[in-house]
Amino acid sequence: MLAFRRRSDVATTLFFFLIVSSLFPLGIGPEPAVLSSIAPGVLWVAALLAGMLSLTRLFAADFADGSLEQMLLAPQPLALLVLAKIFAHWLICGLPVVLLAPIIGLQYALPNDALLVLVFALLLGTPALSLIGAIGAALTLGVRGSGLLVALLVLPLYIPVLIFGAGAVAASQHGMSSQAHLSLLAACSLLALVLAPMATAAALRISVE
Amino acid sequence: MNINWFKYSSPQTFYPLAGKMIPWFAWLAAILAVAGLYIGFAIAPTDFQQGEAYRIIFVHVPAAWMSMVIYIVMAGWAAIGLALNARLSAMMAQALAPTGAIFTLIALVTGSLWGKPMWGTWWVWDARLTSELILLFLYLGFIALQSSIDDPRRADRAGALLALVGVVNVPIIYFSVKWWNTLHQGSSINMGAAPKMAATMLLGMLIMALAFWMYTVAVALMRVRCIMLERERTSDWVKELSVQGIAGVKS
After folding, report:
1. Is residue B21 in a domain?
2. Structural domain tally of chain B?
């Protein structure tokens, strides 16, 4: 839980999420019908961007003070250590967003069952965001302009999660079952859970040598 | 007989070979392109539904095909480069990326030029258009990552890993984007069913695809020669080459 020592990261992520999702009603107008129809997409995009903000710091501090090299040399498999790092990142940056989302969903006039689906979808989907993002963070470690680069690398890969996540909420708004979307979202997360730690470990070995 | 598979895997031996192959592929590309365009614009019948505007498919469809093929080939080279730690494979991947990005852009632009008279709109958020756009983003990400890392070996390997991650994701992205299948017509060429288009149209398209393919090979080889010279500029064979080049100009 070392990441938690820097509380400002959590606060930044949360405030970013809050501000971005509060800007949309100001730009679009306060009609509840319009807001609730754009809510799934807006909230998911905001969550996506908020999670990405802190990605560059996922390995940066460890890289700077050399503990990343210790991790590379450690007897434990690197993928496992990386998975722990990613899990910590999700707890710090993903989970708060999940918990905050229903409150913002209320501002967007989302009905209760859609709110429930939103939380559930975020809960299933945000781990995939942290996992995929870690690959980008590891690849751009120590590269100049890494913040922008991470966005360019990672955002296209986030698209399936965005589609299924927003689709689940939209489906429940239209009175349909969101089960198919949620299953696919879970599938994305599980696939990322298997492949992303290995890819991240490989990327770290490339970046630190 | 013992074939040395790796004879041309070093830049020093590949450089002259690539130089010899470029004219062949370039001429093939030119001839095929002329033939394909002739078939496309002069021989192929006018489509009874779409009129003359459909003729843009002779550029659009081959470009879209090539954009996907090049990404797969690029990822393949990247994988070989990563697995065997081969310099040349990584250089090939790097050389292919800009061509792939250009074909993706051509496919997008010609597609929207065709979409305006046919659908009445430049752009629709349909599965194939969107995944082509995302493919462009993937190409740009690859190029950006490679160009922002100074150490070429690290750039190669980081880019290779990104290409592999991308190639795993492309089908996932494609099927996820397919959910809003809106205006785009079904695939014109279907492996299972008989082609719905006239044989001459298909022939023109295939010849154009071959022409693009040859063009890709020629351009990638040219680019890889430049990359080789740039990376190996301190090595003996490049110095020799430049001495020879100066001597050749003088004589």
Report:
1. yes
2. 1
Which residues of A are less than 8 Å from B172 in CB distance?
160, 188, 191
The alpha-helical segments, DSSP class H, found in chain A are 7-28, 32-53, 57-65, 67-73, 78-89, 95-107, 112-139, 146-173, 179-207
Q: Which residues of A touch B141 (CB under 8 A)?
A: 152-153, 156
Decide if A111 contacts A169 (C-beta within 8 A).
Answer: no
| Segment B124-164, tens digit of pLDDT | 777 777 788 888 999 999 998 888 888 888 888 888 889 98
Please tell me if residue A152 touches chain B, with a CB cutoff of 8 Å.
yes
pTM score, whole prediction: 0.81
- Indicate whether B228 belongs to any domain: yes
Q: Show me where the domains of chain A are located.
A: 2-207
Token pair in block for residue B151: 């150490």
pLDDT tens for residues B60-99?
888 888 888 899 999 998 888 888 877 888 888 888 999 9
First CA to last CA distance, chain A = 26
CB of B157 within 8 A of CB of B136? no
Domain around B66? 13-180+201-250
Q: How many CB atoms lie within 10 A of CB A13?
A: 23
Query: Which residues of chain B does A206 touch, with a Cβ-Cβ cutoff of 8 Å?
Result: 154, 157-158, 161
- The answer to the question of residue B24 being in a domain is yes
In this prediction, the answer to ipTM > 0.85 reads: no
Q: Do B158 and A207 touch (CB under 8 A)?
A: yes
Of residues A162, A132, A144, A172, the one with CA closest to residue A52: A132
B164 inside domain: yes
